[in-house]
Write a structure and sequence with these properties.
104 residues, alpha+beta, two-stranded antiparallel sheet, Pif1-like_2B_dom, DNA helicase Pif1-like 2B domain-containing protein
Length: 104
């Protein structure tokens, strides 16, 4: 592992993927990164349906704060091209209903 250790250019660090073993670490990292983005914070509340057993196990937070330009990742397959793990960014927030996102 030590042979793989090296300094990376700053532009590569900005978009680096971070992996965490605990959800609390993910949330803390996310909140810190969100504070660094300029612009208004838009908060969205999920409308969960289904078995309480499965809803309790779902990893996405019930309240989600987003800003324009914030990176997002799909957690489920929506179509053949919009798949779990696909990364995009928030382009616009239409009131409290939903954000508009763009996926590359």
């Amino acid at each position: 592992m030590k042979s793989l250790s090296r300094d990376l250019p700053p532009d590569q660090l900005v978009n680096a993927i971070h992996l965490f073993s605990r959800n609390v670490d993910v949330l803390l990292f996310y909140k810190n990164k969100l504070k660094q983005l300029h612009g208004q914070l838009h908060t969205f509340v999920s409308e969960d349906e289904g078995s309480k057993h499965y809803i309790a196990k779902f990893l996405a937070p019930q309240h989600l704060g987003l800003k324009i330009g914030c990176p997002v990742m799909l957690l489920v397959n929506l179509s053949d091209t919009l798949v779990n793990g696909k990364i995009g960014s928030v382009k616009h927030c239409y009131g409290p209903e939903y954000p508009k996102t763009h996926y590359k």
